[in-house]
Structure formats: C-alpha cells, structure tokens
Design a protein that fits this description.
Layout: H1 2-16, E1 21-23, H2 27-42, E2 46-56, E3 60-72, E4 76-85, E5 88-98, E6 101-106, E7 112-115, E8 136-148, E9 151-164, E10 167-178, E11 183-192, E12 198-208
Antiparallel strand pairs: 1-8, 2-3, 2-12, 3-4, 4-5, 5-6, 6-7, 8-9, 9-10, 10-11, 11-12
C-alpha cells in the first residue's frame, strides 16, 4: 500500500511540475527552508492574493473566496475579502489596521472605527475533541530545482495522504521560491481518488514592494 501511495504522489508531482534536480528532504529540512523564505518575505512590503475555489463533484466551481492582503510591516495592513457564488458577488468586507486603530466595513456600508488599545484581549483555550477517522497516514516531502526563463526556481512539495473508508485523500502543499529566496507563489489542493477528484484549490500570489501599495485611514 505504501509503495502505491508513494507512486501516486510522485505521479501527481511529475504531472504538475517540470522537475530538474529532485531531493527528498526530511520534514525538518523541508520546513526550515520554507521558514527562511517566509521570514525574509515578512520583512518586506507586500501584497498577497489568495484565491480559493470550492468545487462541486470535482469539476464545477461552486464558490470562489478571494482575500487580498496588503502589508507594511509593523505599521499598516489592509485586507479585502470577496465571496462569489455561481458567478455572483455575495459578500465583500474590508479591514484596515493602522497602528492600534482598526477600520472595517461590510459590502458598501459605512466604515466603523475601533481603538484596539481599549479592547481587552480575549484569553481562551481551544480544544479539539473526537477521534480521528484516519486509518493510515503517510507524509512525503519533495524539493525540485529547475530553470524557467533563465531564472532558477525551487518547488517545495508536501503531500499528506490518509486512507478513510477505502478512499485515499491527498492534502498537497506547494511553495515556489525564486533565486532571491522569496516565496512568489504557493498552492494548497485537497483531492481524493474518487472519480470527482479535486475538492478544493487555493492559489496564493506574492508581490513584494509593489509601487502602488498605499494604506490610509478611510475616515477620521
């Protein structure tokens, strides 16, 4: 069973990547490199566009959730969240954080202002209960390096596989890291071995130091 799962993982990886040099790192080595790239990017002004598609029967897109985050480290943040269902806008929200001041609005309503320095922090504890339905689980980590348009890039691929009710479920995560050591794209996919296949797909695009990034308070 394990050999079959590993073959499926490698097959999915090969189909979705033009692989050059391929390595099989340990979990610790894998996340150490991802952590370095993430820490480097977090020091820069950036825009992250996160798009998640929810599929019905693995083929038809039923809902799309988009989150656009703009960040000026240690100073300002703006987040826009948009939900579309059946090609129609169903919800839109916007949040701006400047220092301790938060500005929010839903759809095209009025802006609401809140001073977070006057809000007590909520202390609590979350607990997950219940037994896992997973019967067997396997994790694999792959790093491939290639050259695209004369630029070196590395693809970090992780696949968690679980077997439940005789169906294999794949939770795939991919990070694309450029030659500057920055993550410029990531992807999360949930799929299984039923005929429907793909269940959910998330793509995240990272822009660093965008020239048009400007965050200001919408109201006084």
């Amino acid at each position: 069973m394990k050999k079959m799962i590993l073959f499926l993982i490698l097959l999915v990886f090969a189909i979705s990547n033009v692989a050059g040099q391929v390595k099989f790192p340990s979990k610790e080595e894998f996340y150490l490199e991802i952590g370095k790239a993430n820490d480097k990017g977090n020091k820069l002004q950036r825009r992250e566009t996160n798009t998640t598609k929810f599929l019905d029967s693995g083929r038809k897109v039923e809902k799309i959730f988009t989150r656009i985050s703009e960040i000026i480290p240690d100073k300002k943040e703006r987040t826009i969240e948009i939900t579309e269902e059946k090609n129609k806008l169903t919800e839109r929200s916007e949040n701006i954080l400047i220092g301790e001041m938060q500005y929010t609005r839903k759809d095209q309503g009025s802006w609401m202002k809140k001073d977070l320095s006057k809000v007590d922090a909520i202390k609590g504890q979350f607990r997950i209960t219940g037994e896992s339905q997973e019967i067997k689980k396997l994790n694999e980590y792959i790093i491939s390096t290639s050259v695209v348009d004369n630029k070196k890039q590395s693809v970090y691929y992780n696949c968690d596989v679980s077997l439940r009710d005789n169906i294999l479920y794949f939770f795939e995560t991919k990070y694309w890291i450029n030659e500057d050591g920055l993550i410029f794209k990531s992807q999360i996919a949930q799929r299984n071995t039923t005929p429907d296949g793909l269940i959910e797909l998330t793509d995240i695009i990272y822009e660093y130091n965008p020239k048009d990034l400007k965050i200001e308070a919408p109201i006084k």
